[in-house]
Amino acid sequence: MPRVSADHLERRRQQILDAAQTCFARKGLHATTMQDVFAESGLSAGAVYRYFKSKNDIIEALATEATVDLRATLTEAVYSDPLPTPPELVRLISADVVKLSAPGGPVRVIPQAWALALTDANIADYVRTNILGFRRLWFDYANRMRDAGWLSPDADTDAVAKILLGLLPGFILQHLILGDADPDTFARGITDILPGYRSAAGEPETARA
Question: Exposure of 178 by Cβ count < 10 A (0-12 exposed, 13-18 middle, 19+ buried)?
């Protein structure tokens, strides 16, 4: 029997994920069944279960895909030099959300995974780990903001990180549900509620990012 290449296995795995994402976008996580995924992918149950043991495994894989680009963008920005200002960083990460939340886009799975985490312990563990990973990045950013003089020397950077973390899900929900949130609006809002960093960064007090 010819050996199956790694590329073939990855294409087949992605075929299943694409089919599942289509089903989730159409019916939602709760209503979608594995039978729906079989039908949408055009694969047999055995072929799908070779890659994913359950619908939860598929959800975790899709949620990972949805957040990996966002995390990469945030990681690069947090550790870059010069450090991006809060409006610059907020605009950058929210622009990625917009790009990844088009109809059928991976970001649309994220709020559904959050909701499922309230009742499913396995999904909750994954979501909690993912959220804590993002919060650690915001914590490092808050420390760098403090070191740059954008926050007071005695600022509680843990508390700041928890506040900054809320910006991302807040933008996702407003963009997807209300439809009136955009990167420039969020950047302007951050400019107005965090005016202190501007003088420390050498920007005019009247400047807007």
Answer: exposed
**Cβ neighbour number for residue 122 with a 10 Å cutoff:** 14
The span from the CA of 27 to the CA of 48, in Å, is: 19
The torsion defined by the Cα of 132, 79, 204 and 152, in degrees rounded to 10, comes to 60
The alpha carbon torsion through 59, 118, 125, 98 (nearest 10 deg) reads 50
**DSSP assigned state of 107:** G
Handedness of CA 26, 29, 33, 35 (dihedral sign): positive
- Its pTM stands at 0.82
Write the DSSP assignment of 113-142 as a string of letters: HHHHHTT-HHHHHHHHHHHHHHHHHHHHHH
Per residue in 129-187, pLDDT tens? Answer: 999 999 999 999 999 999 999 999 999 999 999 999 999 999 999 999 999 999 999 99
